[in-house]
Amino acid sequence: MILGLGGSTIWTSDINNLLPFYRDTLGLKPGVSTPEFVLFGDQIAPALAVGQHSEVRGRASDPYRHMVGLITDDIHGDAARLKEAGVEFIDEPNDQGGGFFLATFIDPEGNLIQLYQSGA
Description:
alpha/beta; 2,3-Dihydroxybiphenyl 1,2-Dioxygenase, domain 1; four-stranded mixed β-sheet; 2 helices
């Protein structure tokens, strides 16, 4: 029986192209780290990882196919902080209905990442 999401990995041809963005710009804390794979957060909870893969080449060719969602408790503050750091947003924080806010930005390889906040 499938129980739910265990995690999501964003693959790259060069982990050093993505790792600083996720670790330093976004501020995610590495939990498990090897030279070619970094898991952010706890190994026993759903987590995001970035890894180097021999079959990945260049930027994302279809960035709308897969989006990672990150939960925030201050979507407006985090969006402002990230924009100040040079992160490109394609969708500013906006209320999707019922106080559920969403914003979408691009990582260094063209992958789309979303921020979620409920009850903002």
